[in-house]
Specification:
The protein is mostly helical. The chain is 64% helix and 1% strand. The protein contains 18 helices and 2 strands. A two-stranded antiparallel sheet has the order 1-2. A hairpin with a 2-residue loop joins strand 1 and strand 2.
Length: 479
């Protein structure tokens, strides 16, 4: 009997380990969602503790879960005052959450495994590869992509180094400005690191009393934050590609900069310029926003807000003061978001780029999509269309639900919902005034936006299914 009980005790952990390994190999995307959701539950429990609040009281479950989801999903929306509600322990928990969420759960696991074992096995490479490209969960994925399995080790190193170096550099640039504002050295460094992490991970949390309102005309601080948001939004694969490109000779080795990096950088810059001009033009005569500013300040503020729509969320203008036309433009930019495998959310800039390339190819009568001397396979277009449809469906369902709960107008609700889905963090203050049920709906929207529609679909599908037959072809009328 003792021997049997001992065998049961030893077989249970082995069975659990075998189940985990089987889950990783069969569906890394589903495993990522499970780990991601488990972390949210853990962070909810930690933020609910009395030690996490400055008042030493238990934070309501809805607010604790909303903050946990917003931190792990690097969104930046909040239902409480981030500067006064949380204690030092609570701020540390939130900081840890945005760091984990920013670099990706599976990427972090692979970095820790590489640190401990000094080697990177195939399973760890597949885990990290799923974070950089969820399409790998499908069948027949080509390795002619942004980051191959052989480059995963270098990518993980780039993730860790860029996270440490960029956030440290941003902290050193922000802290002196806070010292001039009257903060003590420990508070300047602490708040500087918080802002640096919030900018680079595109979270948007601000630990300062009054938020960024006292600094809305501070060109230096806002420029530093904008640089951090831009670097975080282009994605770790692009940072890795830029490093290899510059290390390999720059323009003399232009082939090292792949199609993904070129598409991401080009589309991001185009969208930033479009948002910059649109926001400046639409708010030029608005006395509540830019109407009282001179030309230089208006151009700077509108450019800064355009960068923040990448998913940064560190806004300096109250969206409630903006024109409805401006809110719609920002809705569009937030829905697109930043680069793939970045700290930003949204449907991603490469998704919208592929759709426009497909429309251009169809208009010119081309059989294939082409960009920068490369052909893009049709399976990428199918994924892009799926991402847009699923993203629009999530936003529509959440908007209808919250409109029914609150009775708020469409432009306000849509702005908040898209900000949640795009993990942006720009807010009309609707989140703080939602009923608990509405907070859960918005938290689920943040979760879906950060997990990613491709990863979510891959997790549901789990495995590729093939049919042994094909049905007769018949073409419906389209358009």
């Amino acid at each position: 009997m003792r021997a049997q009980r001992a065998m049961r005790r030893t077989s249970a952990p082995l069975a659990q380990k075998s189940w985990i390994q089987s889950m990783i190999q069969s569906s890394p995307a589903r495993f990522a969602i499970l780990v991601f959701s488990a972390l949210i539950l853990l962070w909810t429990a930690l933020l609910s503790l009395p030690i996490s609040s400055a008042a030493g009281t238990i934070t309501p479950l809805a607010d604790a879960m909303f903050t946990a989801v917003s931190a792990i999903c690097v969104t930046g929306l909040s239902t409480v005052d981030m500067a006064s509600h949380w204690s030092i322990f609570g701020d540390l928990v939130i900081l840890a959450g945005i760091q984990i969420g920013g670099i990706g759960v599976l990427t972090l696991a692979s970095i820790l495994g590489l640190t401990v074992t000094r080697r990177l096995g195939l399973r760890q490479r597949l885990l990290a590869a799923t974070d950089t490209n969820p399409m790998r969960t499908g069948r027949g994925v080509s390795e002619s992509q942004a980051v191959g399995l052989g480059d995963i080790g270098g990518l993980l190193g780039a993730v860790a180094i860029s996270l440490l170096v960029i956030e440290a550099a941003l902290t050193l640039m922000i802290a002196p400005r806070l010292l001039l504002e009257g903060y003590s050295l420990p508070h300047a460094l602490g708040n500087g690191f918080y802002l640096a992490a919030s900018a680079f991970t595109n979270t948007g949390f601000v630990p300062l009393p009054g938020g960024l309102a006292p600094y809305e005309t501070d060109g230096y601080l806002l420029s530093v934050l904008a640089i951090g948001v831009f670097l975080g939004s282009i994605g770790f694969p692009v940072i890795f590609a830029l490093y290899r490109y510059l290390a390999g000779g720059g323009w003399r080795a232009h082939k090292r900069l792949g199609l993904h990096a070129k598409l991401t950088l080009t589309t991001t810059i185009v969208l930033v310029i479009f948002g910059w001009l649109a926001i400046a033009g639409l708010e030029w005569n608005n006395p509540s926003t830019f109407g009282s500013q001179n030309l230089g300040q208006t151009l700077f503020s509108s450019g800064y807000m355009s960068v923040m729509t990448r998913s940064g969320g560190l806004g300096i203008v109250d969206p409630l003061d903006m024109n409805g036309s401006t809110l719609l433009v920002i809705d569009m930019l937030m829905f697109v978001g930043g680069g793939s495998a970045s700290t930003a959310g949204g449907i991603k800039v490469t998704t919208i780029a592929v759709l426009f390339l497909a429309a251009y190819a169809e208009a010119r009568g081309y059989q294939d999509m082409q960009a920068f001397g490369r052909r893009i396979p049709n399976e990428v277009l199918r994924v892009a269309v799926s991402v847009v449809i699923w993203g629009a469906t999530i936003v529509a369902i959440a908007s209808i639900t919250i409109m029914h709960m609150t009775g708020q107008p469409l432009d306000i609700v849509l702005f908040e919902v898209i900000s949640a889905f795009g993990t942006c963090g720009l807010s009309t203050d609707l989140s703080a005034n939602l009923p608990d049920a509405g907070k859960y709906v918005l938290a689920a929207t943040m979760w879906a936006g950060r997990v990613g529609t491709v990863t979510l679909a891959a997790a549901v599908a789990a495995t590729s299914r093939s049919r042994m037959f094909r049905l007769p072809e018949e073409r419906p009328i389209v358009g």
